[in-house]
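Worked example 2:
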Amino acid sequence: MAPARPGLDPELRTLLADMPLVSELNLEVLAQLRQYPSTPVDTLLDGRAVEHRELTVPTPDGARLPVSIFSPAGAGRATAAPCVYWIHGGGMIMGDRFSQIDIPLGWLDLLGAVVVSVDYRLAPEATGATPVEDCYQGLLWTVEHADDLGIDPARVVVAGASAGGGLAAGVTLLARDRGTPPIAAQMLICPMLDHRNDTTSSRQYSGEQGVWTREMNEFGWRSLLGDIAGEDVPGHVSPAVAGDLSGLPTTYVDAGTAEVFRDEDVDYATRIWAAGGQAELHVWAGGFHGFDALYPGARLSAAARRTRDDWLTRILGPAA
């Protein structure tokens, strides 16, 4: 018998009914999914006053990470801009720096923020700490080049969705533990935080088709961790197992009630409060995983995005 679980928002349920869903995720299916083209970023930039640059950032092991930089047109403002350092989702196994890029581009419009989006190496080709270390190196490069990018290094927000939210949490833990760079805030959108995959919400969304199920989550984590298990899994790779959540920057966490990550996300915010930190938590009734990325025009999606906008405006201030 299937466990009881929160129902979907009626509008989202109708929209989701027309979406083809994957029933199983394995290496063969992953290869097929990776063949889909990237988000057409030029379409998103059409009509926006944006300067777009592409470059690569070196890593200590000799790799070069593609990075996209989106800046408000007309550089040379008297005040340095805030920066959103964006980390894309995709279960640690797919996606690229243009995935979900419409979300941070909205903050470029609203706040005059420079958006830096990084391509980290994906599992299963890259395993363990490689993806989070890639994201950390990209952040270090961004802050080191703050003058060139026209950003204020004291107003850098690390943000990401799904796997990108988990990586954003891991990068923020690394920055705290290594003492650099300073991070003004972290925004964790339906973040993938816990490799153990054993919460109530994880069990509720198991054994069925869906946007992201417990079984898909197991495949994503298994692809990333390989032979790493138990106490050997570092907290910056699976942030839910980090023993100390003190000293983190102000944090935003959101999720839907009808998704695998609901309980681990609520627990992460709760542990930040327990450690004396500041976190704002929103759990959207009837939201499935990534609902606002898939259907930004839905009423619940608009409410979720508007609430994030309001929080970031409080943290960074309106556009100059």
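The longest strand covers residues 151-161. The chain has one domain: 10-316.
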